[in-house]
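G., before I forget:
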Amino acid sequence: NAGVTQTPKFRVLKTGQSMTLLCAQDMNHEYMYWYRQDPGMGLRLIHYSVGEGTTAKGEVPDGYNVSRLKKQNFLLGLESAAPSQTSVYFCASSYWEGQETQYFGPGTRLLVL
Amino acid sequence: GQQLNQSPQSMFIQEGEDVSMNCTSSSIFNTWLWYKQDPGEGPVLLIALYKAGELTSNGRLTAQFGITRKDSFLNISASIPSDVGIYFCAGQVGGTSYGKLTFGQGTILTVHP
């Protein structure tokens, strides 16, 4: 039981490049979330999903897209990376609405030059 | 949008000292959570609070859900070096919020042996 895993752990991009961050969970959770963490800002919700095939915008969705084609996977895409997207990205999952315990992955550090 | 103000931003203490931190909000939350983040890792849930006035302990950690539902407090007694990390409060409105959490900015705790 690996919990929540994220791929890659670290990536450097040039402005304008695209990439996809992968989150996988093996706990059969319905809900999945993508956050970004910046110094002094805490964690801010980018997008989330309440089930396979569904996604919704969070607090800071601009510049990102997501997909949940399989229940266990939640992908975060950057179509045209910008320096402002330099951050640490965390994926999390939880059982269902009202189950507050969100299990977090180890994070992906992204540097956009 | 909802905002959580967490204080202090950082703390430098000696091993054995007690620690107190708090979180305040301009909005009411139905659930308060406290997470700890170790360096290079994702946040891990420490304590969850579900009722106004509730006081809950987890080992040396004690957290309280403020009566107004707009604040929460975390205390750590007899700190040890492994308490080092970033502590985040998080609030959840509940209802149809789909488990979405609002995070505080974090308190960076350093414990000197």
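The radius of gyration of chain A is 13 Å. The mean pLDDT of chain A is 92.

More on Monday.
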